Amino acid sequence: MTKKSQNIIFNHVKRFSLLVIFSFFLVSCIKFKSSEPISGPEKARKNIEEGRGVSIGNAVKGIRGGATTYEFSTANPMWRASLETLDFLPLTTVDYSGGIIITDWYFDTNSNTEESIKIAVRFLSNDIRSESVKITVHQRICKSSGNCKIQLLNNSNIQEELHRAILKKASLMDKDQKNKKK
Asked: Is residue 20 part of a domain?
């Protein structure tokens, strides 16, 4: 080994050693909390003081128009109507928090065509309006040699029929839900 390469290695070792020593000093300055057990009521009081708990006041504030509202998927008529409308198709992705439903490739077993479709339903809001849901339909045509061509079907009959069916079903579900509350 040459003298120059030895100096380079020595400098790297020296820097690494300084880094390790500095890290030890830095960690020694950190004050660790004691791990004494805390009783349940005391822990709940501490969490509420730090703003980590749920109180009745916060829950009522959320109902009366606070910034955050949580809604379960079973309470959303658009979501339920979409799932019921697409229940004959195999689903690959169903994500309520992301607001998307994606089907698997579907083809009619009774026809001899080599065409299949894939449907994606994306929710833009929870309101029952035409603009609240976006439906995209992809078509795949496969030749016997295994070559497949995939294209987006814009303004197709399938897309329009699904859109209409979901909105109609969602409005009926919403109406039924409101009648049950009366």
From this structure: no
Q: Torsion-angle region of residue 65: left (phi > 0), alpha (psi -120 to 50) or beta?
A: left
Query: Using CA atoms in the order 65, 70, 72, 78, what is the torsion angle rounded to 10 degrees?
Result: 60
Count CA atoms within 13 Å of residue 39 on its CB side: 2
Residue 159 has pLDDT above 60, yes or no: yes
Same-domain check for residues 85 and 159: yes
Look up residue 166 and give its two tokens: 């979901």
Same domain (yes/no): 63, 138: no
Token pair listed for 29: 């300055």
Same domain (yes/no): 57, 141: no
SS3 call for 140: strand
- Do 66 and 90 lie in one domain? The reply is no
Contact 82, 101 (CB under 8 A): yes
Global confidence as pTM? 0.57
Q: How far apart are CA 92 and CA 120, in angstroms?
A: 10
Same domain (yes/no): 60, 140: no
